[in-house]
Design a protein that fits this description.
The chain folds into two domains: 273 residues, outer membrane lipoprotein receptor (LolB), chain A (Clam), CATH 2.50.20; 94 residues, TATA-Binding Protein (2-Layer Sandwich). It is built from ten helices and 18 strands. The strands form two sheets. Strands 7-8-9-10-11-1-2-3-4-5-6-12 form a twelve-stranded mixed β-sheet.
Length: 412
């Protein structure tokens, strides 16, 4: 293995990344990971034939290589997996689904519904990109396939299992007559390894260590490993590793390891990738014969008729009662403090204010805690934890339970 020139970096690297994100144009504009992320433990299926011999490179130079990458065409296959430690929602997910209980006829091919499946488990995807206006993402199932195709002003979703088609179209001015823009590029949602890497690099600062951790092979291509770690204790994030293509600077694999150990919480990587221009026919879609086609604006009109739009507006109005967001701490240990409307905490168990399924879900996540702040409940995943106090305050961050309690105590 070639010598690895490691380097610590600080906030100056952030400016490099933010200022030179030319490659962001080519990223598949669909959420292949939830929240995370954006919003993913990957079953090791990536080509790996040993660590290649590559010239030494500093962390700063590798960050600049990512920022300078300008590949606008690619196609390939990814394996994406999420393990956030969240219990199965079961029937609760159905009750929160768009149109649930309204008989709205929500299409099974709607991206809003289908892409949520990527927030847990392991999935195989095929992607193709030809600049900012042509992308295709397919989720491969057992004997079925879901495809999301963006071509100019049109976005098509097709679910082969139900033979249903979803169609959204913009008005050509950037305004979506049928939510086309909404499904073209969801803001704030990391997608491919490239976008996930940029989200991580944006957090680089004095509280972060960034080094080059050797070399690897991903999808048969030589790559450097950029390793990002918090210097502080108390974070639920142990490390972020980005495999960067040695030739193009394009991130090929992204792995987020929790500080608690075990398999990765977020891992997305190519098993096959080609930087040649995809065939134009890749982005052409015609609804199959006999398929049910649902227009996005039809769904909007039906939801408005049933009062769903009015309810959504009322819910947004209720958010105006929030007293803002304060941040306690810095870097990886930053905790956001929010005051709930009316200063009310969780409804009492068995009060009837929460559906039984929701109560069961909250109980599966929550632990009662006490401190100088009083008492409350901590809701835990492998990455993001939240403390809701009995007097209506919420403390949330990618930090441990102890760190949340300390933040709440400090806020008193």
């Amino acid at each position: 293995m070639a010598p690895n020139d490691s380097a610590q970096t600080n906030g100056e690297a952030t400016g490099t990344v933010v200022g030179r994100r030319k490659a962001a144009r080519y990223i598949v504009p669909f959420a292949v990971a939830g929240v995370a992320a954006a919003t993913i433990g990957l079953v090791p299926a990536l080509a790996d034939s040993g660590d290649p011999e590559l010239p030494g490179i500093t962390a700063q130079a590798l960050i600049e290589k990512i920022a300078a990458s300008d590949e606008e065409q690619l196609s390939g296959t990814l394996k994406v997996s999420t393990d956030l430690g969240i219990p199965s929602l079961g029937g609760l997910a159905d009750s929160f689904a768009p149109g649930a209980g309204t008989g709205s006829g929500e299409s099974s091919a709607s991206p809003d519904t289908k892409l949520m499946e990527l927030t847990s488990g392991t999935h195989t995807l095929r992607v193709a990109v030809d600049g900012p206006d042509k992308q295709r993402l397919s989720i491969l199932g057992e004997g079925s396939e879901y495809s999301l195709v963006h071509n100019g002003d049109d976005v098509w979703g097709y679910d082969s299992e139900s033979n249903e088609v979803y169609h959204a179209q913009s008005d050509g001015t950037g305004r979506a007559g049928g939510k086309a823009e909404e499904h073209k590029a969801p803001e704030g949602v990391p997608t491919t390894p490239k976008e996930l890497a940029e989200e991580a690099l944006a957090a680089v600062g004095d509280t972060t260590s960034v080094t080059v951790g050797g070399t690897t092979q991903v999808a048969g291509r030589d790559a450097y490993k950029l390793v990002i770690k918090p210097k502080q204790s108390g974070s639920t994030i142990g490390s972020v590793t980005v495999a960067v293509d040695a030739s193009t600077g394009v991130p090929l694999k992204f792995t987020l390891a929790p500080s608690s150990g075990g398999k990765a919480a977020v891992d997305a990587g190519f098993t096959q990738v080609d930087f040649a221009k995809p065939e134009a026919s890749t982005f052409t879609f015609t609804p199959p014969k006999g398929a049910k086609v649902t227009e996005a604006d039809e769904l909007e009109a039906e939801a408005a008729e049933k009062g769903a739009a009015k309810k959504a507006q009322e819910d947004l109005s209720a958010l105006e009662d929030f007293k803002g967001l304060d941040v306690i701490g810095e870097g990886w240990n930053a905790v956001a403090q929010i005051e709930l409307p009316g200063g009310a905490g969780l409804p009492a168990q068995g009060s009837g204010d929460v559906p039984p399924q929701a109560e069961q879900f909250l109980d599966a996540l929550g632990d009662e805690v006490t401190g100088d702040f009083g008492s409350g409940t901590v809701f835990k995943t492998r990455l993001v934890n939240a403390l809701m106090t009995d007097d209506g305050k919420v403390f949330v961050g990618a930090v441990t339970e102890d760190a949340l309690v300390k933040a709440a105590d400090a806020a008193k």
